[in-house]
Amino acid sequence: MPVHEHMPGMERLKDEPSLLELSSQLVTMLTTEHYNLQTGRSMTVADANGRCTLFIGAVSGALIAIAFTGQASHRNEENVRYLKRSDALWREIIR
To answer: pLDDT tens for residues 59-93?
Structure first.
């Protein structure tokens, strides 16, 4: 007499995997999914870091070029005002 006679369809078939096998398969499946999600997250963070590095490098290079231009030209007061505005804009972007 089956153990679950009062619930039809609950009898264990001979070819069903055991609970231990299902548990092992579930752990493998979850580990693989976790690995894939972590890889995707890592790629996203690396991409964001690369883009930020390029942006900061471009802005810093532009500010340095403007500073060199200001030192070389005879219109120092105008260039100093432009650099102050650029610096204020840069600080506003960062904040």
So the answer is: 899 888 888 877 766 666 666 677 777 767 667 77
The parent domain of residue 54 ranges over: 19-94
Query: Which tokens belong to 76?
Result: 């120092």
Q: Flag whether 3 is in a domain.
A: no
CA–CA separation, 24 and 31 (whole Å): 11
- Position 8 in a domain: no
Residue 1: the pLDDT is: 44
With respect to residue 33, please indicate whether it lies within any of the assigned structural domains: yes
The proportion of the chain whose per-residue pLDDT surpasses 70, expressed as a percent, equals: 60
DSSP the chain: --TTTTSTT-SPPTTSPPHHHHHHHHHHHHHHHHHHHHHHHHHHHHHHHHHHHHHHHHHHHHHHHHHHHHHHSS-HHHHHHHHHHHHHHHHHHH-
Interhelix angle 19-72/76-94, rounded to 10 degrees, is: 170
